[in-house]
Amino acid sequence: MNKKTVIVTGGSRGIGKAIVKSFAEIGYNIVINYKTSENDALSLKKEIEETYGVSSITLKADVSCEEDVKKLLNKTLDKFGSIDILVNNAGIAHDNFLEFKTKDEFLDTLNTNLVGTFLTCKYIGSYMFEKKKGNIINISSTNGIDTLYPESMDYDASKAGVISLTKNFANLYAPYVRVNSIAPGWVNTDITKELDKEFIDLEVKKILLERFADVEEISKVVKFLASDDASYINKTIIRVDGGLK
Ligand code: NAP
């Protein structure tokens, strides 16, 4: 049985939930982080423990809060004694026309998506660097590269920032910690289910595979990057977008 430990931020729902399950399948100790969705986190914990016989904990922590991130690090070490993989998946999006886009909203997006990734890479990544072993996977988005939308300019900026952080932390923690990023295109989750059908139809026309991704199509790539099969992949951004035209 593999007794490595993975922390998945925003692991209670959506892509994070699929990532949690993919590591449970291969016997990892799992930390399911969430901010508010305690019931989702607890039912996922029950599901993976019953299905895969793994050990897991749910941990309420706002990744944009420094004290919470320190708590995430320390409580994980208290429970499992080590941390092997960090998946920075927690993220939010506020889509809004420019006239309604406020500074508070902009900062909220940056705080969660970008500052949150900075804080976990800083504290949990430093722990890994000291141990001379570890692996970080940051979930960015094609919105951080080239599928830009004025309605989500805060989100797009945050995800471009995640790519920049990925490269800086890869430099900083070399040669011990591999730091990579995945840039998904559209994925079927709570973030996308609020979109109207007309918009979805237009977006699907831009994708060579003519559909949004399922969450497992992202989690499989995360699991690959975390594995020894990806032992020479470092400081890279992998697009998983079905081929955007
Ligand atoms: P989701 O279904 O809305 O789930 C978001 C997760 O993040 C939830 O577990 C949520 O926990 C957690 N979270 C939000 N703010 C947090 C905070 N401050 N601290 C800790 N956890 C927090 O989102 P998703 O669609 O699965 O997206 C997951 C990641 O993939 C995000 O980074 C997103 O930007 C990225 N992504 C998504 C798509 C897409 O099409 N869905 C495409 C490209 C990239 P609570 O419920 O407790 O708040």
Description:
It is a single chain. By secondary structure, this protein is of the alpha/beta class. It has a single domain, classed as Rossmann fold. It has 8 helices and 7 strands. The chain has a 7-stranded parallel beta sheet, with helices on both faces. β4, α4 and β5 form a beta-alpha-beta unit. α1 packs parallel to α2 and α3 packs parallel to α4. The mean pLDDT is 97. Bound molecules: NADP nicotinamide-adenine-dinucleotide phosphate (NAP). The site of NADP nicotinamide-adenine-dinucleotide phosphate has 30 residues, from α1, β2, α4 and α6.
Task: Say which molecules are bound, naming each kind only once.
Answer: NADP nicotinamide-adenine-dinucleotide phosphate
Q: According to CATH, what is the topology? A: Rossmann fold
- State the shape: globular
Name the CATH class: Alpha Beta
Number of domains: 1
User: DSSP helix count?
Assistant: 8
Spans of at least 5 consecutive residues with low confidence: none
Note the main sheet.
7 strands, parallel
Which properties best describe this structure?
binds NADP nicotinamide-adenine-dinucleotide phosphate, Rossmann fold, globular, alpha/beta, 7-stranded parallel sheet
Summarize the SSE layout with pairings:
Layout: E1 5-8, H1 14-24, E2 29-34, H2 38-52, E3 56-60, H3 66-80, E4 85-88, H4 103-131, E5 134-139, H5 153-173, E6 177-184, H6 190-193, H7 197-204, H8 216-226, E7 237-240
Parallel strand pairs: 1-2, 1-4, 2-3, 4-5, 5-6, 6-7
Helix pairs in contact: 1-2, 1-8, 3-4, 4-5
